[in-house]
Specification:
The protein is of the alpha+beta class and 220 residues long. It folds into 2 domains: 142 residues, Glutaredoxin, CATH 3.40.30.10; 44 residues, Antioxidant, Horf6, Chain A, domain2 (Antioxidant, Horf6, Chain A, domain 2, 2-Layer Sandwich), CATH 3.30.1020.10. It is built from 7 helices and 11 strands. The protein has a 5-stranded mixed sheet. Strands 8-9-11-10 form a 4-stranded antiparallel sheet. The mean pLDDT is 94.
Length: 220
Amino acid sequence: MALQLGQVVPDFEADTTEGPIRFHEWLGDSWGILFSHPKDFTPICTTELGTMAGLKTEFDRRNVKILGLSVDPVSDHTQWAQDIKDVTGYAPNYPLIGDSELKIAKAYGMLPADAGDSSQGRTPADNQTVRNVFVIAPDKTLKLLLTYPMTTGRNFDEILRVIDSLQLTVKHKVATPANWKQGEKVVITGAVTDEEARQKFPQGWETPKPYIRLVDQPKD
């Protein structure tokens, strides 16, 4: 079954390009992003893995750990790293899981239970649903789930924007409107009464409609 937002994500042990990990322990008190790939040595995934490596300092600044997954052995990932660097200028600088028995892909709802127990002989088309982005909070709950088709590369700038929104809205009782970016106005959530809002936002707010209260983005 597919994971639901707010659900604690499955823990697992896995071999990675940086050694064995237990996922929840590895994540610790950080946010996490797990992004998956249907096969090594595929063109779109090559660009995505390198793009993430180039953005790693941005994720670090937000206390977000990056973890990749591909349903091939770690030994294949290691060979793939040079291709990724050749194409994008960046080799992966974060762990990449080898899920050759498909256990994690199944646990996270990316493949059905009857998909077999080996990546050997499987084509990218067989694994086309293994193209997800999971954003996970420090309490190990799922905050964002995106699934991409094989023909569309992921926009990691958008994922950074969503993480900014998630981290802001977890800390403050606000929500972010369409196309919101850092520094723009936010919406006071309906869970906050006007009386509470006056205490929390003494500078006041705009009300283009009675149910919309726009306020400057909290700074702390």
